[in-house]
Amino acid sequence: MTAGMERDPDRAYGGPRTVRPTTTTERRAEVFVGLLFIATILAALGLIVSYIIGANTQVDGVLLAVAFAGLGGAIVVWVQYLMHTPTMIEARHPIQPNPAADVSPGQVAMREAESGFTRRRMLIGMLFASVGGLVTAIAVPLFSLGPLPGRALFVTKWKKGSRVVDVNGNLVHASQIPINGIMTVFPEGAPGDAMSQTVLLNVGPGLLQLPADRASWAPQGFVAYSKLCTHAGCPVGLFRATEHDLMCPCHQSTFDVLDGAQVTFGPAPRPLPQLPIQLQPDGTFVALGGFPEPVGPAFWNQTSGGGA
Ligand code: FES
After folding, report:
1. Ligand 1 lined by 251 (C-beta under 6 Å)
2. Which candidate, 89, 184, 196, 229, has a CA 20 to 30 Å from the CA of 27?
3. Which percentage of the chain shows pLDDT scores above 70?
4. Which part of the chain is CATH 2.102.10.10?
5. If you classify domain 164-287 with CATH, what class do you get?
6. How far, in Å, are 152, 208, 237, 265, 295 from residue 234 at the CA level?
7. What's the pTM value of the predicted model, to 2 decimals?
8. Burial letters for 221-234: b for 16+ Cβ neighbours within 10 Å, e otherwise?
């Protein structure tokens, strides 16, 4: 059997084996499928080049659309015009060799294999090239993701012994924060650091109801919590003194200052992390360690790790 010929699918079982020529429609379909694959390959290569030279995203979008459309169109045309799935109903015959057949069953099987493979070998190769090129073009931008964050999400600049300063880097004294007062503070050496921003509140002595293991973290009613909302990271700076709660201005999550910043309202999924602090004889504050858990919004592993 030569390339371009197919076994007649309608022949009766055990009868003469014939081949039918490739029709004009099929030849045109093959050419069309090949052109669509070429368009896909060129578009995928164009995507890679576009990424390397930094072309704008509109160009990337057009190339991606051409690549997907070419690949999809080629597959549709291939299935529609080049794959034969005739419906046949035929009587069952005894299974035995038919000497009247023009070729032996083994030859037919071999010719089938040769025909199907030879005639479409190029298209199959182009199919793999198209898919490979498209996958490569889509995967290349992954190199733009940058380095992994490592432990950056788990730690802040707070560490054991960090002195508490204001946004200007000046040491904070207890006398600066009256009862029901609030101040945004940072670790010495990192004023203004976004991840480390902390609210230091003075609720007065005898009101806090912290867990026993945190009793020493809030001297004389001074308590410190991360200022980053655990919902989406907005700064939690609204202190309602009469209710003793902190409110996030973005989506109104509310945290109970007296009860370890437990969430009492809103979408925040967990309390604000508490910073352990100690009041020094000179009236300044130092941290007893970093935050015991990651600050800010939740992420895939936000409950492990801790402060510095
Ligand atoms: S960011 Fe605070 S409630 Fe949404």
Report:
1. yes
2. 89
3. 80
4. 164-287
5. mainly beta
6. 18, 25, 9, 15, 11
7. 0.61
8. bbbbbbbbbbbebb
